[in-house]
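Data deposition worksheet. Section B asks for the primary sequence of the deposited chain exactly as it was used as input, without tags or linkers unless they were present during the calculation. Section C holds the resulting structure in token form. Section D is free text for depositor observations; keep each observation to a single sentence. Incomplete worksheets are returned to the depositor.
Section A, Depositor: J.P.
Section B:
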Amino acid sequence: MNNVSNGVLFSDGLSQEIKECFYHVDNDPILGERLFFANAGGSFRLKKAVDTFARIDSIPDYPGLIHERARYLEKVQEDGLNDIRIILNAKAGSILTTLTASQAMFDMVRAIAENVSGTNMVTSILEHPSAYDSMEYYAEKLKKEFRVAKSNPVTGGVDVDELIKLVDKDTCLLSVMYASNISGAIFDIETIVKKARAIKPDLYILVDAVQHTPHSVIDLQKIPVDGINFAPYKFFGCRGLGIAWLSERAAVLPHHKMTAKGTNVWDLGSPAISQFAVVTEIVNYVCWIGGKFINSNDRRELFAYGMERIALQERALMARMLNGTDEIPGLRNIKGVKVFLDSEDLTKRDFIIAMGFENLGYEQAVQEYDKKGVIVYERLTSSPYSKRMLDSFKLDGALRIAPLHCHSVADIDKFLIATMELSRL
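Section C:
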């Protein structure tokens, strides 16, 4: 693996094994054969995650009792909490679980904005509404200046210096996403943290990692932020859980809590134990991939290497989709197709591609793809979830193509053939 700029594919055998770990990769249970290339909005579900969720959720017992089944459920929850730390490489700090990752982001922004001194709050134009809107809301409520870094229409991301120039000694909070959910551009979080803290050493920093977590390794030992969130349903798991981690100092800021609980406890009420079992199945799966390549008894090491191999597989699939082969042209070479925000360096991109047709509108293109058994998603300026980002790129819309590592080269080729046919309509 000396040159991995264009990724490294799984072997055909492993690729097939991986595909069989998920439900409905090749077929809709009702509509039949199809490609689902809309994983940035949802995600394929691991069979073991779904089945384990149902098994655990069917148990009527609950933690806190003294009998054997209750102790079993307590262990399931403990294992899930430990596996959240494995995913993030989090050594200390507190974990917050909520119904959605968006809710967790609002909670973290509120605690910092209301309790940390400073006259301004900094974010970027590309943030998900849960991050952008929470920052805007509390900046307005608390009479703090709201500073927003512009995007780079070439890379599809936000330049480090565009963010850093907005940070000063009066900044109370910097909030930035890990990767764009329109372009897939990965932000240089490690450099952002270092440069921002060089200006203000005690600056509070939050990261929205919902889009990035399923695609690559996250290591809080390298990016010492104060809060980060992700969503298991976009990470091969089930809907109904949002997860956040908070640093030790952020965790003890005033927040909604039960009076009898410790100052660093954020959870309210009884959690769904089945969701913690889902997290464990996600980590089990990624460790299984890691174990195909390295020998280790260290769960974090196996997980991290598994995520590295997932990133390499997706990069190889993305290179094939963009560049094609001798037999099938890639998106960059199909007449009548435009790839937006097409940064050449694939090491700085998650597997999300924004594109359009010269001869088809975005909604029409989605419908035409559907007729060919391909599911993609249109992002339009008419949507509050897209307008701010698209406007910053001077785009009126885009088709978002979002496969996952469990797809094969045959799936990519099938998509390219369908794209060529649509370009001729």
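Section D:
The chain is about 40% helix and 15% strand.
The CA atoms of residues 77 and 168 lie 41 Å apart.
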